[in-house]
Amino acid sequence: MRMYDIIKKKRDGGELSTEEIKFFIGGVTDGSIPDYQTAALLMAIYFRGMSVRETCDLTFAVRDSGERLDFSAIGGIRADKHSTGGVGDKTSLVVAPIVASLGVKVAKMSGRGLGHTGGTVDKLESIDGFRTTLSEEEFIAQVNRVGLAIVGQSRQFAPADKKLYAIRDVTATVDSMPLIAASIMGKKLAADDDCIVLDVKTGSGSFMKSAEASKELARLMVDIGKSAGKKMVALITNMDRPLGNAIGNSLEVIEAVETLQGRGPKDLTEVCLTLASYMLSLAGKGAPAACRALAAQAIADGSALAKLRETVAAQGGNAALIDDPAGFARAKYSHSVKSGKSGYIARADTEAYGLASLLLGAGRNTAEDSVDPSAGILLKKKTGDFVQAGEELAVLCSNDPSAFAAAEKTLLGATDFSDARPAEEPLVYDVVT
Ligand code: URA
Questions:
Q1: With respect to CATH, is domain 3-49 assigned 3.90.950.20?
Q2: CB 3.0–4.6 Å: which of 16, 33, 79, 404 could bond 20 by disulfide?
Q3: Residues 124, 222: Cα–Cα separation, whole Å
Q4: How far is the CA of 82 from the centre of ligand 1 (A)?
Q5: What are the structural domain ranges in the chain?
Q6: CA-based nearest residue to 198, from 209, 187, 166
Q7: Of 63, 87, 108, 114, best ligand 1 pocket probe by most atoms within 8 Å of the beta carbon
Q8: Is 161 a known active-site residue?
Q9: SS3 category, 149
Q10: pLDDT tens, N- to C-terminus, the chain (433 residues)
């Protein structure tokens, strides 16, 4: 079999066989296929798509590219959540402690930032000392002891996805339905959870821009998960505006802590409570409405925040930051972005907001780049808010002041105003079971 022929077949709109897909993923994993051929096939898949059968084969090949985790030593029901990626999406940092504080085990494997979106591992690494790499024994022992552990993917775990993820990130091939489905579900199936809640983002800040495409992706992933014996739910949530007010790694950790303290932004709190309620419900804690009340109580009585503090301490992080986020390293420079117009914010191109944050140093331009944990954006106004000309729209934070001009231009260019207040959009569009 030759990679050249596989690329040509997909380029010309053909359907790849199970063997061809296994050959591709095998070669990505053992390094025998060079990155330029991988990138070429990814681009062909991006344009030509994949059938459901090809997507399932790709998912299972990604799952089998490394070690399958065995969580049987974890006592109790294990639940996980995974987002398709958004801007300001720090829900894992809020939802995982809520769910763990209510007795459901959360053995979480998270990713890094991808394209214009952030990643939980980058966010956690902004906490001084936090170890996102644990041995399997440490990981399982912590989940048994604390109820929650969050790590990045180890080299042995779905290694094909790690490679593909990094190449997609820098070749404009992230927003492809089969590639997203295989990436997410390949990892989810290699882990050993009983229940999985998917947060499928839809709108300008997500990889799927339309509600129809998001629903199709959700259906595909739910079906793949169920066929592998998992309890699955997917929520379709709004990513036409950043979630919460903070974009950027440490800024988002601080906002997650504020949300666990019961003083988070309304939109973030709402989406977190909904995700938590479905995780708890799948794990057998009751109907979603009753589970939502449990989740709200875990915030109100401080038990979810205590669980985050315990997790940070267990993974070597400076837990004092959870009680006093003022201790997080701050970017050396900040810049206030003022509105040139008066009116309601009618629309924000949320992907552009993510890119503005990337320009400030919060994300990567190449796979080798490191991120600046303190860089990002604090939004002062969002879609639906009225703004006077000259009023502050956002504060940009960076250690590189030369980045401010481009980030400001991107942000202002991505914000549309109108005289009339725009209609309010739902935060959760649909639930796919
Ligand atoms: N999250 C993933 O893990 N993979 C994707 O492709 C997109 C979001």
A1: no
A2: 16
A3: 28
A4: 9
A5: 3-49, 79-155+191-323, 329-418
A6: 187
A7: 114
A8: yes
A9: strand
A10: 999 999 999 999 999 999 999 999 999 999 999 999 999 999 999 999 999 999 999 999 999 999 888 888 998 899 999 999 899 999 999 999 999 999 999 999 888 877 788 889 999 999 999 999 999 899 999 999 999 999 988 778 889 998 998 899 889 999 899 999 999 999 999 998 999 999 999 999 998 888 999 999 999 999 999 999 999 999 999 999 999 999 999 999 999 999 999 999 999 999 999 999 999 999 999 999 999 999 999 999 999 999 999 999 999 999 999 999 989 989 999 999 999 999 999 999 999 999 999 999 998 776 677 889 999 999 999 999 999 999 999 999 999 999 999 999 999 999 999 999 999 999 999 999 9
Question: Residue written as tokens 């991988």?
Answer: 38
What ligand 1 atom has the least distance to the C-alpha of 85?
A: 8
Whether residue 168 lies in the annotated active site: yes
Q: How far is the CA of 192 from the centre of ligand 1 (A)?
A: 18
- The span from the CA of 92 to the CA of 251, in Å, is 15
Residue bearing tokens 């935060």 = 427
Which atom of ligand 1 approaches the CA of 207 most closely? 7
Enumerate residues 6+ apart whose C-beta is below 8 A from 293: none
pTM over 0.90: yes
For residues 288 and 286, give the distance between their C-alpha atoms in angstroms, rounded to a whole number.
6
Alpha-carbon distance 233 to 189, whole Å? 15
Rounded distance between C-alpha atoms, residue 324 and residue 116, angstroms: 29
**Ligand 1 neighbours by CB, cut-off 6 Å:** 84-85, 111, 114, 179-180, 183-184
For residue 218, what are its two tokens?
A: 């959700």
| Contacts of 346 by beta carbon, 8 Å cutoff, 6+ apart | 383, 416, 417, 418, 422
Taking a C-beta distance cutoff of 8 angstroms, is the pair 198, 207 a contact? no
Number of continuous H segments (helices) and E segments (strands) in the chain: 17, 13
Pick the CATH number of 329-418 from 3.40.50.10490, 3.40.50.620, 3.90.1170.30, 3.40.50.700: 3.90.1170.30
Amino acid at site 432: V
DSSP E strand stretches across 259-332: none
What the block records as the tokens of 118 is 């952030």
